[in-house]
Amino acid sequence: MSTSAPVIAIVKDDLFTGTALGYPDKTGKIELASVLDPSIRCVGNFAYVDTKMGDGDIRCNDGSVGTFQFNGLTMFSGYGFGTMTLGSMSFTFGLNTSEAGEYLRLPKGKVLRGAVKDNNASLVDVGA
Predict the structure, then answer these.
(1) 1 exposed, middle or buried (CB, 10 Å; 0-12, 13-18, 19+)?
(2) pTM listed for this prediction
(3) Buried/exposed 52-90: b ≥16 CB within 10 Å, e otherwise
(4) Which residues, at least 6 apart from 75, have a Cβ–Cβ distance to it below 8 Å?
(5) pLDDT above 70 for 82
(6) Average pLDDT, whole number, for the chain?
(7) How far is Cα 100 from Cα 24, in angstroms, rounded to an integer?
(8) Assigned CATH class of 3-125
(9) Which residues are registered as beta bridge partners of 9?
(10) How much is the pLDDT for 118?
(11) Per residue in 42-64, pLDDT tens?
(12) The dihedral of CA 104, 20, 4, 70: what is its sign?
């Protein structure tokens, strides 16, 4: 049996949303799409290396690639950081947009709004 969790990621100044699918053997797959340009899609794999930490890799259809590390807050939620061809990446899984903001490296002057589950998460100007 597998478990899915929503993913929110910031790559450079772009917001990506998607899903992580975790398996009982502590491995999983991640799928993301850019909110600014939905034609940019990414897929990757991850694995826990101990009870709450893990790592993975990701590849996008625009040619960018990256690696990341993550920390679990619970079995089904957490946050992580990585490096991609496009720039640095920060992400959360299993958190809503208000919880995720604490762990994401948001672009300067931006805040995260909307709901990932409704597919309407977005970066908006502070004060908007």
Answers:
(1) exposed
(2) 0.90
(3) eebebebbbeeebebebebebbeeebbbbebebebeebb
(4) none
(5) yes
(6) 90
(7) 25
(8) mainly beta
(9) 16, 91
(10) 57
(11) 999 999 999 899 999 999 999 99
(12) negative
